[in-house]
Amino acid sequence: MSGLRITLSQYWEKVQNTLFPYLEETLDSPLSERLLNCIAVLDMVRIERFVFDFRGCVGRPPKNRTAIARAFIAKTVFDISTTKLLIDRLKSDRNLRRVCGFESSLQIPSESAFSRAFQEFALTKLAAEAHQALIRTVYKNKIVQHVSKDSTAIEGREKAVKKVKVVKEKKKKRAPKGCAELTRIEKQAAGVMSLDEMIKDLPTACDVGQKTSSTGHSYAWVGYKLHLSVDDHGIPLAAILSSASMNDSQAAIPLANLTAKYVTNLYDLMDSGYYANAIIMHSEALGHVPIIDRAAKGEAQKKEKEAEKLARQNLNWMPAEVMRYKTRTTIERVNARLKEEFGAFNIRVKGACKVFAHLMYGVLAQTADQLLKLAT
Fold first, then answer.
1. Within 13 Å of residue 60, how many CA atoms lie on the same side as its CB?
2. Running DSSP on this structure, what letter comes out for residue 106?
3. Which residues contact 318 (CB under 8 A, 6 or more apart)?
4. Helix axes 3-14, 126-138, angle to 10 degrees
5. Is residue 70 helix, strand or coil?
6. Rounded to whole angstroms, how far apart are CA atoms 253 and 255?
7. Residue 256's closest CA among 294, 292, 230?
8. pLDDT tens digits along 174-207
9. How far does CA 356 lie from the centroid of its chain?
10. Digit-coded pLDDT (tens) for 333-347
11. What is the rounded (10 degree) CA torsion for 290, 213, 202, 115?
């Protein structure tokens, strides 16, 4: 058993032997399995540690921000689509209400108060901060073998920004070698930008994106892209939001740097959309081994064909890179679960800041849920 599993198993044993018996005595029984899962997620995340404390500030203090923050986590775990439905659920479910921190239904704020709190949490990146703290704690002094990177389409409920038509200028003389303007990826790889500058430089406006599915069919959507890095166990390690039209490769280096702040890994797994010399060199500079699908780019095809022949001759053996690349399917399951179970399909807010906050609640809850599954 790996060190990560041992750590999580010890935590889960404490939850079962200490927290659950206490709650069964204090709350109305019986406790549903989903409520127990929500309680375990809230206990692991402990988002209240990152909520700003208004005690001592001038003026009337706002409604209980800690309870509201916990309620947003519960909303994601129970996959409740709207804030109005969340309020109705809190009023009717006494156990859930008390778990979130509201002692009576009279303490539950109005829908507008929830909306104001959500905006505050979005501006302060509350969910993202809690997620980073959770990853930092869980993966301290641990090594991850493979980190897979990919993006997923996020459909928004807003109009796409109109693109400004660029007037074609007369052809200019080619700039001397070494004087041409660097591309975004080259600037990122050159080390002239900090991580915050890299992320701020990425476009985040709502626009039209287009992708080709694994079956070869092309589809388009209006909204954003969520870029994720995921480990072998299907646990999201880092996330970045961008415009839907942005190429995946432009988020590869900032996503790698963001992941490297909290996790030490050995291999970077990416599809052919990330194939670029700057990305390969940056991965190697971090001490990783990049494994990128190059077949679509027309490189190393001869080598791959020879490997396939050897694999046919001996069915029990396959090249190491091929075997490692197969673990990248984990991120596809993570993206699907994020949409189906943790609210990424129910985007009802507008603007990149709020959309990212909504998605990060889902990423945070999914991370804790997947860690609990790993523990059991």
1. 2
2. G
3. 307, 311
4. 110
5. helix
6. 5
7. 230
8. 555 555 678 899 899 988 889 999 999 999 999 9
9. 9
10. 999 999 999 999 989
11. -120
Could you identify the residue written with the tokens 């053996």? 317
**Amino acid letter, residue 49:** R
| Angstrom distance (rounded) from CA 322 to CA 306 | 13
Q: Which pairs with CB-CB distance under 8 Å and at least 24 residues apart come from 351-356?
A: 351/158, 352/204, 352/205, 352/206, 352/224, 352/241, 353/122, 353/123, 354/118, 354/119, 354/122, 355/154, 355/156, 355/223, 355/224, 355/241, 356/122, 356/128, 356/241
The CA angle 31-34-36, to the nearest 5 degrees, is 55
Which DSSP string do the residues of 221-272 spell out, in sequence order?
Answer: EEEEEEEEEE-TTS-EEEEEEEETTS-GGGGHHHHHHHHHTT-EEEEEEE-G
Question: Distance between CA 271 and CA 269 in Å, rounded?
Answer: 7
Q: Is-contact 246 198, C-beta < 8 A? A: no
**pLDDT at residue 57 tops 60:** no
DSSP label at 299?
-
Give the residue among 283, 289, 232, 239 at the shortest CA–CA distance from 262.
Answer: 239
- The predicted model scores a pTM of 0.86
- E strands of the chain, at which residues? 143-155, 207-212, 218-230, 236-243, 264-270, 289-292
Type of residue found at 192: V
Q: Tell me the pLDDT tens digit for each residue of 306-341.
A: 666 665 555 555 678 888 888 899 999 999 999 999
